[in-house]
## 1
Amino acid sequence: MENYGFFKVAAAVPEVKVADCEFNTKQILEMLVEADKQGVGVVCFPELSITAYSCGDLFFQETLVKAAEKAVEDLLEATKKLSICFIIGAPVKENAKLYNCGLVCQEGRILGIVPKAYLPNYAEFYEERWFNAFRSEDRNYLQEDFPVISYAGEIAPFGTNILFGWEERTFAIEICEDVWSVIPPSSYHASNRAQLLFNLSASPELIGKQQYVKSLLSQQSARCHAAYVYAAAGFGESSTDLVYAGNAYIYENGKLLGESERFSFQKQLIITEIDFDLLTSERKKNTSFISRPDIHNYKEVTLSLNHKERISFSRPVNPSPFIPVTDAYDESCEEIFSIQVAGLAKRLVHTGVKSLVLGVSGGLDSTLALLVCAKTVDKLRLPREMIYGITMPGFGTSERTYANAVQLMKFLGVTMMEINITAACNQHFKDIGHDPSVHDITYENTQARERTQILMDMANQLNGIVIGTGDMSELALGWATYNGDHMSMYGVNSGIPKTLVRHLVKWVAETQINEASAKTSLSDILDTPVSPELLPADEQGRMTQFTEDVVGPYELHDFFLFYTLRYGFSPGKIFFLAQHAFRNLYDNQMILKWMEVFFRRFFSQQFKRSCMPDGPKVGSVNLSPRGDWRMPSDASVQLWLKEIESILP
């Protein structure tokens, strides 16, 4: 089974009893067996999970330290037949010093022992009372003389600078306070190729602390372009002075993938898949990410993980990656809209023009552009009358879209003009010898170019600029007439994909508009099928041309666009993700059909993007040839099509 870079990890929060190593080991073993059944490759347990973290001065007792070592021996013996790799916490004595350590184990062996680098010794923490700190910069060992110690019947490398890897995948670990330090060990680990970071923790609860911890982990994950798995001690730790809530989090490049239930009295296993391909893509593109394997001499330990045979995919895949997440929806929509407004405002102030000219069709794109124009002049304290909304009925204009365009312009108080293009187009057909009964590409593009000519010339008359209304999805597919609706002086929607346009218009209608009639018009615009309205309407004045019947569903194309540009994923991986995202909407054949259309059009239509007008970038994906996307206009698509052909027999 192809996993497309996904790898299953887990953060485990077992129940513990303070200083009861036998009980704690039994809990760990039960969770290991369950994690192994679920196909987890690596699972991380909390700090000092063998003894419990809150043993206090009992760490001075040889009885406890020896019992912990014996418990690790027993756990190794019990897991010889399990292929899962696991990380547990235990006190380890070396050269008469006691260290707070993370042990990386697999198939009955200890593969490495990583001591804690930074020991908290403030407020409620007294770790320096019991343990010694270990920092690799104080011990710059070479590979050949890297220290090894004997523990629990095993000989294992001992130090903070150890990388554990398999098949070009690498992970490393740090312990609790380490990530709170000025330069966490995980920063060095990431600079030395670690893509996956584990943290064994035992951080007690304080009011407001959880959000700070989540912010800290999210930022470290994002800064390191890594996955970060955090497992903290939970129920059963001593509550003499403190409470441990059992916080477990899994982040990927700053995004939270999974978290535990806080203050649960039951053990918890948080499982998800992390995407190594995504992390590799981020590091490859980001020139600020510094790969420095020479910073410290790292010991490399090889694991055997049969993850290709074991993974079952459970991670949810968002079918609308461009749409803001629910808990930040309003804030994100406002920010996107504000970026559009700020971009247009700068262009308006810089040029000193006296008018903004745009075609208003009653469709989604021109509606959003008109709303942006209105907000821009409001913020600049300029009259809305300087906005010239021009409706240009043609052969395919429906009564529905025409009425919505007129109603919206009246409500916004812009200067409204109507110029019918039918006569001009018929004259042009006569001039070039085209039969107007032949509804081909010439028939359609004549109308688009006539409308653009009107807008450009009106802008000249009015000392203004033409505001482009086309969106990023149309640019990706080349669904625009070259030197027609493809062209403007400033494209306010050029960074907005079609799926997001709809949400922004809806957000404006719900949060910025109070008048009932305007809300009704915007609601009807939202319900209107996407159409260029270039083919004649029917006898009842209704549209007969529907864009998605020709190029395919925009929700699929936006999905393909996001993963192609944002992470450079292959068609095979995008198809794998699409299967999970759209499992109840499209079958495999339908996904592949439109994926082929997407790649064919995306490659063949680059020439339109190579000379696209200026416009603001609003998200992580953009098609500007001056910014994010610089592609030859004559590049071959054959590699991508060949992979699509090979996906299904």
Note: The longest strand covers residues 85-94.
## 2
Amino acid sequence: MRSSATTSLFSDRDRRLLLAVAETVMPAGQIFPAAGEPAVDRLEQFLAATPWAAKGYRTLLWTLEASALLHHGRPLARISGAKRLALLESWRSGDYARRSALRALLAPLKAAHFSDPAFYRAVGCVYSQPVVRAESPRWMQERVLSPAEVAGETLECDVVVIGTGAGGAVVGRELAEQGLAVVLLEEGDYFNRGDFSGSAVEMQRKLFRDFGATMAIGNTSIPIPIGKTVGGTTTINSGTCYRVPDRVLQRWRDEFGLGEFTSERLTPYYERVEGVLGVAVARSEYLGGVARVIARGCDALGYSHHPLRRNAPDCDGKGVCCFGCPTDAKRSTNVSYIPLALRAGATLIKGIRVERVITESGRAVGVRARAGRAELTVRARAVVVSCGSLLTPVFLGDNGLANSSGELGKNLSIHPATSANAIFDERIDGANAIPQGYAIDEFHDEGLLFEGAFAPLELGAASLTMLGEPLVRTLEAFDRLACFGFMIEDTSRGRVRRGPGGRPLITYYLNERDVARIKRGLEILARVYFAAGAREVLPNVHGWDSLAGEADLERFRHAQLTARDFDLIAFHPLGTARMGVDPRRSVVDTNHQCHDVPGLYVVDGSSIPSSLGVNPQVTIMAMATRAAEKLAARLD
């Protein structure tokens, strides 16, 4: 019987089929009840917010039903539980297409089942955070406008900035504080801690672009989650702050002629940024059990490890950094640079999409933007594009700008990443701590940087490919589960083009060198876990559900694996409008101005020339601080 709380997204036949899948994948355990109607209800609610995804989901569901009819001559709901599980396991162990289809089908269903306050209580976790009423001063309210308030107008300013993330927010604040008239345009809405519930699924829908489903495709599929909100991806990142390594700056000087970019010259810009963000080492009392066992394992093996520096000086370990900080402890740009820009006189227009750069005599002189029927024109002496590495090249390409080099959209680096879980006999309680507060840097010169990666219960469930009793048994050990991850300094490169509906079409092929580096990272992490006393390591690699000790690890070390065998995600896209002194090999010059278009600047991760091997947030911000200084001098 359909619950009155659900929508009509699924037919009764759909629901019967979904219930059969859910009951098979998530049977009752010792703590958790079997999946049933509530899980299907929540799944309907999730998918109702993304109709484009719902259509594809139903297609996957009925492809599975067709497989049941083909192999058993009966609908999935009418065959035995054992046969259902065997059919699902055949997809899970099958070719990449079937594995991917099953993952896309089951991950939302798992998340829906485990997104339940009762389940959180059963494993000692907090389901959601108390919402704190956030008050903004009147001057701030007056400077944040909706499209309806400016519809049909033509605004005049010195600089118009498109985007409010690590690049745009910093440029806006720096220029406004130097007395320039600044207009900031943001496609997303302006949320604050009063909107941040701590619920992972709800916040993904509210803060992430396309529900976090931005994806690179190639010899494997790699999600690249990015933000769509005032603050951009700074609102949904982990707050980790690294300066760019000297060896990377040396490469920029050698390969791109960027002689000005030395550690000494960048230090004042880093210090200015770090002062605004309150960057400090994560406090030991909030590092939690995952950091404890990682430190213990590293000490046993002699590996270098340390707490991370973060932009959250008042963090109290709520565990939801990637879903909007509910206490404003993390100083993402929505609570740091944007309010500073507004206080200095900048104007922010939220919920509006910029469609066109206005050029006159080859020079950028403004933009046209739209939100529904509301249109806005902003005339400016300079236009700053800060849409991020995945959207900036699409936007500039749609405008036919800044690509005489042919490099626009190319040279994409993404820091491919993965993680592994481990089950201990001791309580870890990873959900009640800083998710990414600790690092292993022993192998950083090899292009491997290990950082914490703990996820809430429902997202942890969605990330596991196991089915049936092994899945439930693992999740019932959630309070004894450790999760840690790593990213690689990739040598692979990708490309961004305009895709269907204007979304970025991202192609990226993981080369053999990077595949080997990912495999080595998992071997190292498993060794650290075992040295710390782990009972079992779950690498989440195709064909390797579990490692029980040294013998399994030795077999894993000699396994022949491909890019498609790993469960990957990526962060920190960079390089798609890269900086350089040679207009034939780069998109912007050393001042971030496009070689082709005077008055048009790119200040975001896309202008960074190469992979950094570290979280790029403060590097983008330091370079944006420098860019604003150069631009202000030019406009003086």
Note: The mean pLDDT is 94.
## 3
Amino acid sequence: MKSLWRDREAAEYKGDLGLRVYTSRLLGRDPSLVLHGGGNTSVKIREKNIVGEEEEILYVKGSGWDLETIAEAGFAPVRMAHLLKLAKLSVLSDSQMVNELKAQMTKASAPAPSVETILHASLPYKFVDHTHADAVISITNTANGWERIREIYGDDVVIIPYVMPGFDLARVCAEKFAAEKSDRTIGMVLMNHGIFSFGATAHESYERMIDLVNRAEIYLQKHNAWHISSSSLVATKVVEVRSEIAKLRSEVSQTAGFPVILSSHIDEQCLNFAQSEDVHIISQQGCATPDHVIRTKRLPLVGRDIKAYAEAYHAYFAEESTKSTQPITILDAAPRVILDRQFGLVTVGKSAKDAAIVADIYQHTMEIIQRSQLLGGYQALPTSDIFAVEYWELEQAKLKKGGSAAPFTGEIALVTGAASGIGKACVNSLLKRGAAVVGIDINPDIENLYDRPDFVGVICDVSDEVAIAKAIDKAVQSFGGLDMLILNAGIFPSGCRIENLNTATWQKVMHINLDANLVLMRECYPLLKIAPNGGRVVAIGSKNVPAPGPAAAAYSASKAALTQLMRVAALEWSGDRIRVNTLHPNAVFDTGLWTEEVLASRAQHYGLTVAEYKTNNLLKVEVTSHDVAELAAEMCGSLFACTTAAQVPIDGGNDRVI
């Protein structure tokens, strides 16, 4: 554990709050300390209020902010005087606590304060840092963790037995810390939860955190519990089976009651853990910290028996819910983590971002479990303690409050020709509606089109069947299956009359505009067939289908044949709940098909200027890629739930089509 503090960097941050931001970001840079909103930091600052009175304000990390990217606006300012009064209460419900914290904020626009705000206030130090350091948790989550923590730190830390986060934890910490702290105390360890450090300055508190965690890492190394050996089983060649992963996603979605994203991880670490002989034992003890249960559930599924997992989850809820003092609503019974010998680690989320967060958390959990095992045996909290956090009053409030998800949340789309024009616009429209999108294109730029968890770009020549298969495999590995297929890739050769059209050009156009789409539909059919909400296919046809023009024989014929293929697919696939529709755009000039040369040639053919040609329709409007993409996305949505085999023009009104 190395300090990342740099004097030159620190000098750019002004004042106590500025330095609080700096050291918070330093902590957030290290995923072995905090992950995805985990941990919190604070600073106490004396300020004058609007009437000139000086008061002490606690600036504590606000809800929804990550330490790695936090700014001054991410800290909630709360009046210390009231917080210290709250800390002396014997009882305070979570809902009351949340109300009191919000009521004592000095900025209405600030985020909601951390649930550990009162705990930060009760610690008599200007700066307080709290992390969920992997090394510390690896030690606390063992049978004799308390003794080991005392051996490592002596009187340098106060040790707190596990108490559920919230007011009760703040009260216990305040009492125990006041009774046990000494002149040597620089931190506090919460068993099965995390570690605190304190200081008079941001630098001091940060360096103490690094030192305390470093001591835990050294202890693990000294006891041969740091380096995790790989099993020989990892060397086994793992061949992903597309249909099996998609089937697994379908079963998980059915159990959850909504479409989900499945992300497969077959790196050495994940396979080593999933293929270990004792995975059925070590993975079934519980999560590393109770905070993780909200993302990962208490236990992962080992294997693929979704039904058995759901039955066990219902039994778990039935037993533990009887201990609750108020009515609680059961969450869905689908797993969020699946450990499989062939697929390695499979993570589940309502979105690609959620699945990625689960993966990050469980990859760290695997290391914690394995190090705890090397230290004598992993031991998580009792089931009841984890259940209490999973069904926490505050989490139940969020559940009841709800909120509508984007229409394609949990669904997956594949778009061809996605690097530019209509294809890129389709990617944007689908992402906006909550879908995870795989974009394929022969242009290498597709790989870097977007840097976000819900998009994967794959270089693919659609005229190559092997490349198509690999692209679909990548889609399934990344997101778990396929719900929507947008057939957009195509070529438009230079104008050429039939008497001058050579066979090679004809065949190339047919191969890309027609044959490739047949292959894509054939290969995607098994995935679309088991899409949770039914599969959807939208082909980008052309106005040339109902109204062809001269010098475009190959293009017009290929699009007409594609349209006929779509009609047949609609007939054949309707029984599988797959909707198949076609759009016929015209004069969409912000696409790769329309080079300046082609545009000028077509305008000249009709005796128009380029500007006139662009709006040469009844409505005198220019049709853009965005317009086409929005309609394509809508055809995959609920508005077209009763429509298949449709051919919809999007051309501003073309008299020849009409």
Note: Residues 234-239 have pLDDT under 50 and may be disordered.
## 4
Amino acid sequence: MLKFTCCDQIRQFSEPANAALLRGIQRGYERECLRVDETGKLAHTPHPSALGSKLTHPWITTDYAEALLEFITPPSTDPGFPLRFLTDIHAFSARQLGDELLWAGSMPCKIGEDADIAIANYGSSNAARFKQVYREGLGLRYGRAMQTIAGAHFNWSLPDDFWHALQSICPGDGSLQDNVNDRYFGLIRNFLRCGWLVPYLFGASPALCKSFLQGHPSDLVELTPGTLHGPHATSLRMSDLGYQNHSQDKLAVSFNSLQDYTAALEAAIRTPDPYYEELGAHRGDRWLQLNACLLQTESEFYAPMRPKRIGLQGERPALALARYGVQYVEMRLFDLNPFIDIGIAPEQNLFADTLLLMCLFRTSPPITSREQGENDENKHRVVTRGRQPGLQLLVHNREQPLRTLAHELFDDMAPFAAMLDGAYGSTRHTLALQQLRQRIDHPELTPSALVIEAITQHGGYFDFANAMSEKHTRSLQAAALSAQDDERFRASVQDSLALQAQLDAVVQEPFEDFVAAYYA
């Protein structure tokens, strides 16, 4: 296993004064969720106007498909705020859906043919059209079924005071932001090495409706009539069947430095791909995709974790990162837990806090192409057969038992759980680790195993997920929501609709010029 960068750093941040700086950690969630009709089939209705404008609302939008809702929490230093806010925004939204339901699983309902899946429409402005064309391009490149898969992204950042303290303990060669960039990229590299632990512990998509494959072959086997599964799978969402993309295998995006990463993304949005060129960017006046390059935009690059920066002047993601440096990281491996109304368990952010802090403090050498192959293979093994007895993973070209590696990671995380507990004056992080650690030797306790059991009891994935969707949606509709929160959400809806109207009323430059300016 890897060593830690500096024991003195860990010791000093375990002391009360420095540990208190960790209270400034900011967290947020982005939770995706399909709308389905009362029969459990994909909703074909437009995004409800009672939820506001999906282009301008700060917390309620759509991801790719028109029916794929996305709920976004504002960043907060209060560890409990993201899930409280998600619960409230779910309760508000569920009340605006009429007979429709919030689908409980990561893998979709009965979605029908690819052409039946509507792409999200954001309005008539150039900014709205850009978002829609981007999604049209995703459908063209990868199929629209992939745009109905849902997950939860966890956003995480450390406060400025932490970085100043860390620099005083261990000065770097460059500016403070240079050191911040280096440490965040070191964190990401370590996460790529050990992130397989997330789908093992929290994966909840071991099965799917046969209809999702739309006749394409797979290695999955029948669990019940109409339901296919990987017998030991944890997260088919993160497998080749889900949000993975063989077309991106030719990309060589390095996380070894900010410069390497942004340069690779810049090249990808400007390098033509022969197949995408053959498809074409236009068909008459209709735009089919934003460009015919390896990536339409940087957001099309799928990775378990991404460095993020909100541009100060609306810059593209890679350009904002290059100009201003890393602001936060986005961890993208959480499936939706279908047993929970908002899809996310309280222990998930406690675990993520601990894992990410450990990844930050660990030594993090550059990732070679050989090691990247190992990292990819380990994730593939865990998402497709993580609960397989005796499963081995690769470490430096050697096979080692998953259970042994997982226990070693939990041992390494323990002091960071204690560090966080010292910061917050609690034992929550340590207790969460203790509870989750049981899943290593008892895979029957993992969400993926519990989902398989529930599917079997219900007679199929659709029946199980539909029952959970009905239960959770009705529970959320009946949940208490304060008059103040209800008014806040209603005001946000009206504000977003007003802003949408203003944007749509502005005379637009030619869309071709708008797109060209994006890539300039």
Note: Residues 83 and 346 are 7 Å apart (CA to CA).
